Amino acid sequence: MKKRITIGGIGSVLLGDDGVGPYVAGILEAAYCFEEGVTVADLGTPGLDLVAHLSGIDVLILVDSVKNSASPGTVTLYRKDEILRHGPAPVRMDPHSPALSESILIAEMAGEGPEEILLIGITGEQYEVNAGLSEAAEKAADEAVVQILVELGRLGVSYTKLRTKSYLPWWTPLSEAPPSPAV
Amino acid sequence: MSTRITIDPITRIEGHLRIDVEVENYAVSNAWASCTMWRGIETILRGRDPRDAWMFTQRFCGVCTTVHAMASVRAVEDALKLPVPANAQYIRNLILIAHALHDHIVHFYQLSALDWVDILQIPKADPAAASKLAESLSPWTRNSRNELKAAQDKVKAVAASGQLGIFQNGYWGHPAMRLSPEVNLLAFAHYVQALEYQRKALQVVGMLGSKTPHIQNLQVGGVANAIDLDGTSALTMDKLETIRLLLAEVAQFIREVYVIDVCAVAAMYPEWFKIGSGVTNYLAVPDLPLDNVAGAYDLPGGVIMGGNIGGVKPFKTASDPAFREGVTEDVTHAYYQGEKPLHPWQGETEPQFTDWDGEKKYSWVKSPRFNGQPMQVGPLAQVLVGYAQGHPLTKKYAEYALSQVSAIARVNASPSLLHSTLGRHAARAIRAAMLAELADKHWQLLVDNIAKGDLSVHNQPVFPSGEVEGVGTHEAPRGTLSHWIVIKGGKIKNYQAVVPSTWNASPRDEKGAHGPYEASLLHTPLARPEEPLEVLRTVHSFDPCMACACHTFDPSGKQIARVKVL
């Protein structure tokens, strides 16, 4: 049986480089056609709602902005043990705060978690409201796409590349968007 | 001598609810609620096309996506006085109901049940005794000894691994935890089952909205769902039938599990019906419109002041003049510039950050007020406002829940008990039961309307050249949500969102009146101030949702929660 694989972009498209996960998901949706069983999704900032997307699949590949010591635009691959190393947040004050490890642990406790989880992390430069992506993050997004295709190849997934123009997301800041055609 | 406790979960982002309380003689003597991140996202919308606004507002929060999309299209429709076809109203209502059912289930089981349920007591439970107890309370078929034993084994496996995983940070063994091992086991078994049913509700949102978490089917003036009962790709009878069955399964879980569990837990902590009332001014807006112009609703709205249920003032419409004119936002204690409270259409969002100072400015949340008064919003407000008006569906489930509590606790539970921490949980369960019943009704309304030959789903918006103002409201899972828009020449001139958690988490105002979280914490007893479980119980009962908009993963694990006792 074919593996069920979800590729999920995580982050807020309104906050600068936090939108790089959804941006990568957007490129994959616009420019590639994957075989059945592969789902590409812009998951936004789902908090514990991520649990619903973890159930009934074999492999989860997440793309998210990361804060680490690397320079902006660096792409780093994390595996499940590295994501879970620090466990859930100690006090659940605001129940909807980002909850990557919490969601994974809940799904596993319920016996529903995917067997393999990868996180493609892109080191962000800025998280300003309405700033769009930094040049570093935009370049890193292309690299992340290549990394994902490599992982999919390893998992035996086939895909075709579509002929498309460059991808311009709907949330591009007004200052960077080309003038809209007259209605 | 008082002790100061700060609860400030510093997770991988800065942007959270922080609570400070002063404790004297094992009880809270003063409280401050603050949000530690700037929410100026509305500024993104200025200059954009009002027809696109909902796609952006849907990103305000990653969990409450749908509700911000809906309030936004309603704001533009209100500004244009644009009617919405009946089919579109019903499709929207079904999405709102399914989202709310998902949200209420997750809130009770995944986000707050473990404030009351002690996981470490579960290995001691007798599954047979737990099953017998469960079957005396509910006809639910998944309470068998075997099912409960399997749930117990999950906890035992986690405990035996030496790492508690998802359960590693609870206040287990706290003296305020008082359920029997069997009740703890039952609640936990339902915690696991709840994961399945919340997912079914989300599936409905995805089927009608074409994607979840971000629905794609909205349009100013209606929806984009093509209706073709015999077709293959549009909204077909097959699809509608699947939706009906999913909603029926969720409804059964709500009636036979969620409502019963809330009543049972409540009956075993009766003192929590006397704790956590705080602000007893309540505000709810009418929702689930039944016609094209939103003149009749299935959820009533209105205002109750000072806990005076008999003096309820109903709202006739979702943009009732009393509501439109009564809302202001005050920034005396919020990190913004500004002298006096402003109406949202005139609202400004100019930051003026200072350090946390409980006497001066201490939060990024503004203080919304209604006719100058702090208001509590949420399921409790909605249930009380409906109950006070004699709304039959509200009365049916409120009276049912109170009779359950009375029977289990052997007391006479009256509606006045609802002004409390447990009242908020009970009201959320009551609301869920109402919505589950309404899901069926609105599904039938949609199917009947289509059967009459009406396939219309959209009216075209037309923008005037001048300036127009609108407000879009929605009674969201966390309470009254309102989006306020000013449109000039077809472009957005101003946009303000007054969200439920802003009402509830608001800091003090110019008169020094506490916001609802703050007021609800006063006098709360604390058994162990260094483990402030009781504070979390009350704060969680509001279902807080703050600034969850940024999601950067930090692999170095800077996830230090600070429960600081000074």
| Quaternary | heterodimer
Largest sheet of chain B: 4 strands, antiparallel
The rounded distance between the terminal residues' Cα atoms of chain B is 11 Å
Kindly report the average pLDDT value of chain A.
87
Helicity of chain B, as a percent range: 25-40%
Strand order of the largest sheet of chain A: 3-1-4-6-5
**What is the radius of gyration of chain B?**
23 Å
CATH H-tier superfamily of chain B: Cytochrome-c3 Hydrogenase, chain B
What is the C-level CATH assignment of chain A? Alpha Beta
The top-level CATH class of chain B is: Mainly Alpha
CATH architecture of chain B: Orthogonal Bundle
Number of β-strand runs of chain A: 7
Write a structural description.
- The complex is a heterodimer of chains A (183) and B (566).
- Chain A is of the alpha/beta class and 183 residues long.
- Chain A has one domain (5-161): HybD-like (Rossmann fold), CATH 3.40.50.1450.
- Helices cover 28% and strands 22% of the residues of chain A.
- Chain A has helices spanning 20-31, 50-54, 80-84, 100-109, 135-154; strands at 5-10, 32-34, 38-44, 59-66, 75-79, 116-123, 159-161.
- In chain A, the strands form two sheets. In chain A, strands 3-1-4-6-5 form a five-stranded mixed beta sheet. A two-stranded antiparallel sheet of chain A has the order 2-7.
- In chain A, helix 1 (20-31) packs across helix 5.
- Chain A is globular, with a radius of gyration of 17 Å.
- Residues 92-96 of chain A have low confidence and may be disordered.
- With 566 residues, chain B is of the alpha+beta class.
- Chain B has one domain (3-565): Cytochrome-c3 Hydrogenase, chain B, CATH 1.10.645.10.
- Helices cover 39% and strands 15% of the residues of chain B.
- Chain B has helices at residues 53-57, 65-80, 86-112, 127-137, 145-160, 181-209, 237-268, 321-326, 379-388, 392-409, 421-451, 500-504, 516-521, 533-541, and strands spanning 3-10, 17-24, 27-35, 218-219, 222-223, 282-284, 287-289, 297-299, 301-304, 313-315, 327-330, 367-370, 467-476, 479-488, 491-498, 560-565.
- The longest helix of chain B is centred in the middle third of the chain and has 32 residues, at 237-268.
- Classes of the chains: A alpha/beta (183), B alpha+beta (566).
- Chains A and B meet through strand 3, strand 4 and helix 4 of A and strand 1, strand 2, helix 3, helix 6 and helix 14 of B.
